Amino acid sequence: MDRLRAMEVFVSVTEQGSFSQAAEHLELSVVMVSRYIRQLEDAMQVELIQRSTRRMHVTEAGRMFYEESKQALDQVRRAYERVESLQQAPSGLLRVSAPMTLGSSLVAPLVAGFLAEHPDVRIDLVLSNSVVDLMAEGFDAAFRIGNLGDVDLVAKGLRPYRMVICAAPGYLDRHGHPAVPADLAGHRLLAHSTWTNRFTWPLLDAGKEYPWPEHWVLKSNDGQALRLAALAGNGILLQPEFLVAEDLREGRLVTLLDDFLPATRPVNLVYLRQRSALPKLDAFIRYILRHAG
């Protein structure tokens, strides 16, 4: 049994709260995750996790083993990082988190360019609209939109996040041009499913805020899916400028309601201060700031 790998699997099961989610997080099968847990329990002759068909519960022994395993894995990670920091050329694995639309449209091309310059670096780019815990989830860096609340993170400001409202010329020929936010009530709209009370993009009119109407014809958590729907003439889109910049230049989409756009928001590349000495992370930070700062 690979004890270190088994400890990593057990820590993931404990933190994720289920075998299936841990398997997805570690890119293993559920059968393999169960095998590692069973091997640990057989080796120590103790039950670490009580499980049934509906739920699982970490035992007292399991909780103790989790705390010790977490510390051991952190120590192993620090050992690797100290050796990596002695290297001249950037190399090794970088784990990076980014929101989905920002990640696919802006971060992914930057990552591709960085890899071309640094062939000895590998990048695990995870796109998710969830805010990750860099330390707990093992990320080296993350791209964040909006004001930051993490006091323990170093933040480097990037170009601000600016939204645009647009539609295909064919749609506007059929349905007309909205002149003020209230006119959107009579239009077919495309909405992003992560727009919640916590993270919305209200339109601004004479100091008042108007939320994006709820009567959408398509809702998706992927900005590219919404962009394709707008290009097909299915409705009016509110998305970041970088996503549709080429479509606007080529005339496939045209902007609307420019005087009522939501306020721009800051974008930051954040990372843990103690990891900035790693050549791979330092090179990544400098590359991002050079191209998107």
From TrEMBL:
GO terms for molecular function: DNA-binding transcription factor activity; sequence-specific DNA binding. One of its GO terms (biological process) is DNA-templated transcription. Pfam families: HTH_1, LysR_substrate. Residues 1-59 form the HTH lysR-type domain. Keywords: DNA-binding, Transcription, Transcription regulation. Gene3D superfamilies: 3.40.190.290, Winged helix-like DNA-binding domain superfamily/Winged helix DNA-binding domain. Transmembrane segments: none annotated. PANTHER family: HTH-TYPE TRANSCRIPTIONAL REGULATOR (PTHR30537), TRANSCRIPTIONAL REGULATORY PROTEIN (PTHR30537:SF35). Belongs to the LysR transcriptional regulatory family. This is LysR family transcriptional regulator. It comes from Pseudomonas plecoglossicida. The lineage of its organism: Bacteria, Pseudomonadati, Pseudomonadota, Gammaproteobacteria, Pseudomonadales.
